Amino acid sequence: MPTLRASRRIGWLTPVFCGIAAAICGVGFLTLGPAPWREVSRAGVEDSMMRWAYGRRFEAQSAFEVAVVDIDSATLERFGAWPWPREQLAGLVNRIADGRPSALGLDLVLTGTDPRSPAMELRRRGLPENDPLLKAIESRLPPGDEMLRKALARVPSVLGIALDLKATPAARPAQFLTTGDIALDRIWRAPGVVAPDVVLPEQAGLGLVALPADSDGIVRRVPLVAEVAGEFQPGLSLELLRISSGASAFILSGNPRVITAGDVRIALPGDGLLRLVPTVSSLPRPQRISAADIFEGPARDLRGKIVLIGASAPEIGGLRSSMDDSLTPSVVIHAQAVLQMAAGISPLTPKGAKGMEIGLSALAAMAGAVMPAILPPLLALAGATLILAILVFGSVFLLVLHASLLSPLMPVVATVLAFAASALTTFAMLRRQASMIRRRFEQHLSPEVVAKIARNPHQAKLAGERREITALFTDIEGFTAFAERAGPEAMITLLDRYFEEVVAIILRHGGTVDKIVGDAVHAFFNAPLDLDDHAGCAVACAIEIVGWTEKFRHDDEAARLGFGRTRIGIESGEAIVGDVGVRSKLDYTAHGYAVNAAARLEGANKDFGTAICIGPGAAAAVAQDKLRPLGSLQLRGHSQPVNVWTVA
Fold first, then answer.
1. Residue 101 CA from chain centroid, whole number
2. Strands 319-322 and 218-219: what pairing?
3. Domain 443-647 in CATH: superfamily?
4. Terminal alpha carbon distance of the chain
5. Residue 250 forms beta bridges with which residues?
């Protein structure tokens, strides 16, 4: 069985190994676990980081104002169910164009001819194409597609397109000028698009309206660029910025990788998707106007604003789950993307982020595992909290200062798991150690002292050591004759009562009960814990023992059997104290001059007729007015006789 001192040298390794193992399991799960879970967990942490970073930084400035014309449920109640005839949509566009916006974007994909025109209704009902009635209706009614095309031509416009699995290229490919090596290895790719053709004006642009969602269904990104049939195609929000700025083409740069749309420069991620920032107080927000108000009210002042037309009515199906609301109109998401890009905010995951996160995780896990093993609990907890704060706020500051999105999820998980596993292992080891200490010393020391050692095992010197102690030996006078007079049951009953109180007195005075041998009690003071004035404590203990035993031996049963008086020997000096024995039987005991002398001084009481005999070592440490000299005595180990004392 190793001593506590040896355990302290090697005991901290076990919690550290357990903590590091737990951290490795956690990091491995984050790296190799189910992809949807990893994606959602990481995205949630990034959302919180951006709320902190951009909710508490400078007020973001935008060179553009954005308004959303919302086709809401109230509008559909007043102006009919969706889809509207193109003529009606043209009226809405004309009302907006009267306000002179800088650009107009439609979060709608208007393919083919007007599906709600009278001619299309007759065709759906089976009227032949060459029927005279159909031709008469088409000639007399104003063509809605042409009206919408002319309305869109009044204002710089961007019409929505959607990716298609069929190889149908965009009717009007966007112009991109490139400089340097453009590496977009994870870009969104498709063989073709679904695009408007009949209503597309000459100078209008086309932009992707599709919004990819993460595994939890939340839209956190909008497309900046995608690849269609080998050509780049912009997203709706980015194309609106180009059209509004009057730029003829986009400029793609490879080092650093950015895309320029007029006066706006945006850092371009490798997947071509802009990471959206949650709506926070420091970011501008789009103005929302009901389409019904545009129809019925006076022409609004939309001068210089970027206007988007979209729908929040549930029956149109334009609602998406965003970071701010589970039912966000897709047009609002595009509008927020315009404002975010205009403010120059484009968070990017830096190169080598995975390696940096693993390296930080390793360092943080090591620190989190070591602290509970070597530091007091509160200090270890404070240290772990400091590490977590550095990881979290460091990531936030990096995002604020450099727009670098380095997630602290992996290092934080590694720290927490390492700390928790190490702390639990340390706690279990300490509990086991405390239990061993209690079992080991509960017969030797008072409960208070045992609890103190259990709380602070390092204070107890259980390995062999040389230290100053005061030894106390007791013996019952005439015990052999008493044992012959008393029967076994009576003798054991009296001895049980006797030893119980004598041991209790020793423990109350801070002594350690070494052993009980026959009718004798061997005890010492100042081990395993330091005890001030241990000689004085031993003398006071002896006085109380003698006082109690004198009353005890005059009780009826003890007096009838002739229970003898108690004699005590006390001496102070150096001794070797520690665990002695074999693994199955250890005995915490003391060896040395003081122990031997106390045993001989106890026997000397017969010669002096006293109950307490105190050697010179102990007497030198006790106030002389409390002692009375007895004379000299030849003790083994001394070449000359020594003076001895008893209590005054």
1. 48
2. parallel
3. Nucleotide cyclase, GGDEF domain (3.30.70.1230)
4. 46
5. 176
Closest alpha carbon to 572 in 590, 589, 588, 587? 590
Residue type, 63: A
Q: Give DSSP secondary structure letters for 203-251.
A: T-EEEE----B-TTSEE-EEESEEEETTEEEEBHHHHHHHHHHT-SSEE
SS3 644: strand
Question: What's phi and psi for 374, nearest 5 deg?
Answer: -120, -10
Count CB neighbours of 213 within 10 A. 13
Give which of 248, 251, 277 is closest to 344, Cα–Cα.
277
Residue 582 C-alpha from the chain's centroid: 46
Residues 22 and 418 sit within 8 Å (Cβ to Cβ) = yes
- Confidence grade of residue 645 (pLDDT, cut at 50, 70, 90): very high
Residue range 267-299, pLDDT digits in tens: 888 889 999 988 865 677 899 999 999 998 777
Pairwise CA distance, residues 576 & 171, whole Å: 99
The pTM score is 0.67
What letter does residue 71 receive in the DSSP assignment? Answer: E
Spatial contact of 470 and 538, defined as CB atoms under 8 Å apart? yes
Whole-number Cα distances in Å, 457 to 434, 514, 645: 8, 19, 37
- Length reported for the chain: 648
Cα within 13 Å of Cα(491), Cβ side: 14
140 CB-contact burial (10 Å; exposed 0-12 / middle 13-18 / buried 19+): exposed
How many Å apart are CA 523 and CA 295, to the nearest integer?
A: 103
Q: What is the pLDDT of residues 496-520, one digit of tens each?
A: 999 999 999 998 999 988 888 989 9
How far apart are the C-alpha atoms of 246 and 137, rounded to whole Å? 40
Token duo for residue 184: 């977009």
Instruction: Please give the pLDDT value at position 435.
Output: 64
Tell me how far CA of residue 32 lies from CA of 35, 41, 226, in angstroms.
Answer: 8, 13, 29
What are the backbone angles phi and psi of residue 633, rounded to the nearest 5°?
-150, 140
Q: Angle at the Cα of 4 (from 427 to 379), degrees rounded to 5?
A: 40
Cβ atoms 15, 369 nearer than 8 A: yes
| Tokens linked to 309 | 């037309």
Ramachandran angles phi, psi of 144, nearest 5°: -65, -35
CA 128/CA 126 separation, integer angstroms: 6
Instruction: Strand 218-219: give its sheet, edge to edge.
Output: 218-219, 319-322, 328-329
Q: How far apart, in whole angstroms, are the C-alpha atoms of residue 518 and residue 499? A: 11
